[in-house]
Specification:
alpha+beta, 289 residues, Diaminopimelate Epimerase, Chain A, domain 1
Length: 289
């Protein structure tokens, strides 16, 4: 039996921007190897599989990179929720709940800046090891002077751990050239394989932050828009900022020719409450044979 296939761009304001996602529905007839093989074949950062009808209102979804299954990822959550809302659920509900390996993740539809925006509430963050700035400079192929010493380099997780690295400006961000040996040395004994570098120096004055994310371990040399890691960034900013709530616009993907816009919100409470929002654009439909 064939399974419907949807291609969408997430955190995009138009087609062929943002982060590409393949969503396979009616996928309960596929086994683990078939899911992994198709994710490798399609080659996007992630591919998702909706496995059957919802249970207690939550849709069971599995997420695969080209190399491995992951328990959570941001743009697949928003993109899959949009496909479910438009093509599977009745009456285009304003909330869709995904049942992921990390647990249930609700996605709500709200208007932001005059655009229909999907928002996911991520799991309460965990703030883990602080890492050496010089080690992260080596990972990113930068000079130690390119890192902002007033902010920590730290592992944060809202479901998928990320190493958050502060840089002094966008020039440093644009010069990143990941050293795989240094990356393997830093990430080898940690479950944090995503490295998110950011600066408060965006291209667009309407935005607040520019960032890039690298995850060679998962077969993702660079990701154009990363909801999970930016959720970690939102929590990081709430924890280490001035104590105010976080409400920022983040640009990502420009170095890849995939300009992306992510909205981040976080309350500086304990635990920190994290939301990540963005828009989803349909690209193509077909079927997986």
């Amino acid at each position: 039996m064939s399974s419907p296939l949807h291609l969408v761009d997430v955190f995009a304001r138009e087609r062929y921007a943002g982060n590409q996602l393949a969503v396979v529905t009616d996928a309960d007839g596929l086994d683990d190897d078939e899911m992994q093989d198709f994710a490798a074949e399609i080659g996007f950062s992630e591919t998702t599989f909706v496995t059957g009808e919802p249970t207690d209102g939550a849709w069971s979804v599995r997420i695969f990179t080209p190399e491995a299954e992951v328990p959570f990822a941001g743009h697949p959550t928003l993109g899959t929720a949009d496909v479910i809302r438009e093509h599977l659920a009745d009456d285009r509900p304003d909330e869709v709940v995904l049942d992921l390996e990390v647990g249930e993740v609700p996605v709500e539809v709200r208007e932001r800046d005059g655009t229909e925006t999907l928002w996911m509430t991520q799991r309460p963050p965990e703030f883990r090891d602080r890492l050496d700035h010089d080690d992260l400079a080596e990972v990113l192929g930068l000079s130690p002077d390119d890192l902002e010493r007033g902010w920590p380099a730290q592992v944060v997780s809202t479901g998928l751990p990320t190493i958050v690295v502060p840089l002094i400006d966008r020039t440093a961000l644009e010069r990143i050239d990941v050293d795989r040996a240094a990356y393997d040395a830093v990430t080898g004994d940690r479950d944090a394989k995503n490295v998110l570098a950011f600066s408060f120096d965006p291209r667009d004055d309407a935005n607040d932050v520019a960032d890039r994310m690298f995850a060679p371990y998962y077969g993702v040399l660079e990701d154009p828009a990363t909801g999970s890691s930016n959720g970690c960034l939102a929590a990081y900013l709430a924890r280490h900022g001035d104590g105010d709530a976080v409400d920022v616009r983040v640009e990502q993907g420009y170095e890849m020719g995939r300009p992306s816009l992510l909205h981040l919100r976080a309350e500086a409470d304990d635990p920190v409450h994290v939301e990540v929002g963005g828009s989803v654009v349909d690209v193509a439909r077909g079927e997986l044979l």
